[in-house]
Specification:
- 32% of the residues lie in helices and 17% in strands.
- The protein is built from 9 helices and 10 strands.
- It has helices at 28-38, 59-71, 88-91, 121-133, 149-156, 180-189, 210-214, 238-251, 259-265, and strands spanning 8-10, 42-45, 75-78, 102-106, 110-112, 115-117, 137-142, 165-170, 195-200, 218-221.
- Strand 2 (42-45), helix 2 (59-71) and strand 3 form a beta-alpha-beta unit.
- The longest helix has 14 residues, at 238-251.
- It is globular and about 45 Å long.
- The relative contact order is 0.19.
Length: 266
């Protein structure tokens, strides 16, 4: 059992199509700042409007980033999720906002709900070049075993550098479900010395992330991934989800890494 420090990534805003919604109005900067105080050292943010819908207008996003940065040292990760109609340029607008230190880079396509989440090699190269140009560290999202092969393709083009930060993403509707068998396969394929996170959608808090904690992985929690706690109750805030995973880590003897410590590791 690995007892190293635990890095907590919080994804505070749910997607546009999600079965369980957060309660009431969500103040993203304040949720982020509070989650950081509870132990989160990274925040995964989409560019969204005042109604929390995907947008390509970075003005509100830039305001939120500035507000977070004024009160917290949490690492800000911009998402390339976007909406289906958005171009690659539009999906990577978060990389242009000052204060963004990391950016998601999806390493392959998957089935998603009733459609396909398209992340072709050309898409990856586009994002990797943008990340490199802006001095932003990639946060690789891996949804399937075949996706590991693209790390080598990006390496050969000298677009990425170690240590790699990987997110193993499971339970996306109609994509790969979580199992310990699949997790172990991912760990076998993982590049040496990579830093890895486990992400599960629609899961009951820390109760569904225990095997990830036991294997030394880091985790992402938040309303984007699921609003329920280990005891089955609905979380009233992202803070409660962060506290839930921090408590589970403490029982395993794992301390919580600060944003400053996380920057050192990255």
């Amino acid at each position: 059992m690995n007892m190293e420090e635990l890095i907590i990534d919080v994804a505070p805003v749910p997607g546009e199509k999600q079965e369980e919604k957060f309660p009431g109005k969500l103040d993203v900067p304040q949720e982020t700042i509070a989650a950081a105080r509870a132990g989160a050292s990274i925040v995964h943010l989409h560019v969204r409007d005042k109604n929390l819908l995907q947008t390509v207008d970075t003005s509100l996003f830039a305001h939120d980033v500035k507000q977070i940065r004024e009160s917290s040292s949490i690492i800000i990760e911009g998402s390339t999720g976007g909406a289906p109609e958005h171009t690659l340029e539009q999906r990577s607008v978060s990389f242009t906002v000052p204060g963004v230190e990391m950016g998601s880079l999806n390493l392959g396509s998957i089935n998603l709900w009733d459609g396909v989440y398209n992340n072709s090699l050309d898409n990856m190269l586009f994002y990797a070049e943008r990340l490199q140009k802006n001095g932003i560290k990639p946060f690789f999202c891996i949804f399937d075993l075949s996706h590991f092969s693209y790390i080598e393709k990006l390496e050969k083009r000298q677009l990425i550098s170690k240590p790699y930060v990987l997110a193993f993403v499971y339970d996306i509707p109609n994509a790969l479900p979580y199992s310990e068998k699949y997790l172990d396969l991912f760990l076998e394929e993982m590049p040496q010395d990579a830093i890895w996170f486990g992400v599960r959608h629609h899961v009951n808090g820390a109760a569904g992330l225990e095997s990830i904690l036991e294997r030394g992985g880091h985790v992402r929690v938040g309303f984007e991934d699921g609003p329920f706690l280990s005891n089955g109750e609905r979380a009233k805030s992202n803070v409660a989800l962060v506290e839930d995973i921090a408590a589970a880590a403490s029982k395993l003897g794992r301390s919580i890494a600060t944003p400053e410590r996380t920057r050192e590791l990255f």
